[in-house]
Amino acid sequence: MNTTDPCDNTAKTSSDLLVMQILYGLHTMAWFSGGVFAVVALIINYLRRSDEVDPMYIAHHNFMISTFWWTLVWLVLLSPLWLFFLVPGMLAYAVVWLWYLYRCIKGWLRFNANRVPQTVVTV
C-alpha cells in the first residue's frame, strides 16, 4: 500500500516553491498595479501548470487561474454600474477586489500549509 501524501512537496526544489510564492504575491499585489501583476502571474500560471506533475501545485495554479477569471467576469458584469451610479459601482468593485484579495491570501496560506486550495464549500 502506498502511503505517499499527494500534497507532499518535498520533491520540489526551492525554486519551485519560490515561483509559487512569487505568483501568489503578484496576484495579491494586483491591487497596486491596476491588475498588471495579475496578468503577468496568470501567464506564468498557465506556462508552469502545463509542465507541472505535482497535484498540489496543479491545484494551486488552477485556483489562481480561476480566481483571476471569475474576478474579471464580475468586474465586467458590474461595469455598467459605473456608467449610471458612481457610488454603487465603487462599492461593487470594492467587494469584488476584496473577494479577490481574500482568495489570494487564503490560497497562499493553504499553499504554505502544504494543503490544496479549498474550492468547494461543503456543508
The main pleated sheet reads as: none
Provide the domain count: 1
Mean pLDDT: 86
| Succession of helices and strands | HHHHH
Number of helices: 5
Radius of gyration: 16 Å
How would you describe this structure to a colleague?
This protein is mostly helical and 123 residues long. It has one domain. Helix content is 71%, strand content 0%. The chain contains 5 helices and no strands. It has helices spanning 14-28, 36-51, 55-78, 80-84, 86-112. Helix 1 packs antiparallel against helix 2 and helix 3 (55-78) runs antiparallel to helix 5. The longest helix has 27 residues, at 86-112.
The gist of it:
The protein is mainly α and 123 residues long. It has helices spanning 14-28, 36-51, 55-78, 80-84, 86-112.
Write the layout of secondary structure elements.
Elements: H1 14-28, H2 36-51, H3 55-78, H4 80-84, H5 86-112
